[in-house]
Amino acid sequence: MAGFLKKLFGDAGSEINLDKLVKQVSDLAEKVTSEAGEAAGEFAKRGEAKATAPSYVEASGPSGDSWGPVMPAEENQFNYSGSYEQYFTHVFEEEFPNYEVRKAVALRSDSTVFTFWQGGRKALVVEVMSQNSSAKKLRSDCARDGIPYLRFYHNHDGWWNTRSYVTKRVQGALGGI
Fold first, then answer.
1. Distances (CA, A) of 172 to 82, 88, 106, 122
2. Is residue 70 one of the residues assigned to a domain?
3. In a domain, 130, yes or no
4. Per-residue pLDDT tens digits for 128-175
5. Does residue 55 lie in a domain region?
6. Domain for residue 52, yes or no?
7. Separation in Å, CA 17 to CA 4, 6, 24, 25, 79
């Protein structure tokens, strides 16, 4: 690293204590890495980030928050016999029979929108999309109109979209029915 900095700074490098600079950069990198690891651990404990370890999902029983390196035995979009669209339709129809759920494929081919209706009013919009999508329009439109919005990713490594996870999030967005 010091050789690189000497090449970068040339003769000016003799005026700068490159060894001290390299040590400071190294110390800072170590501190940032440590803090990032601690933050990732806190997010993982709260279920807010994709976890790779230390937590992991057992292969039997409910999955809790639906993430981990091992596919849970609980019904999820990957062990369901149909497509992810069929899986979400299946879960929504069985778990939320008091709502009319309408499915529409978004203009982008990687997104499917499920709209929950009750009593002639829009109660919830659920978007199932690729992790590579950065679409934000539907979410902002829903916020503007005061309609709850949820997003699930159909291809995010380690996220299984188990039935209990999907149901829990939808129930919460519908007001804890």
1. 26, 16, 24, 16
2. no
3. yes
4. 999 888 778 899 999 999 999 999 999 988 889 999 999 999 999 999
5. no
6. no
7. 14, 10, 11, 12, 59
Q: Cis bond leading into 54, ω under 30°?
A: yes
Q: Please give the Cα distance from 167 to 160 (Å, whole number).
A: 13
Query: How many other C-beta atoms lie within 10 A of the C-beta of residue 124?
Result: 22
Interior angle at CA 146, CA 145 and CA 149, nearest 5: 100
- At 33, the amino acid letter reads T
Q: Structural domain tally of the chain?
A: 2
| pLDDT, tens digit, 9 for 90 and up, residues 12-22 | 545 566 566 55
Kindly list the distances between the CA atom of residue 157 and the CA atoms of 123, 152, 161, in Å, as whole numbers in the listed order.
Answer: 30, 12, 11
Among 117, 123, 111, 118, smallest CA distance to 85 is for 111
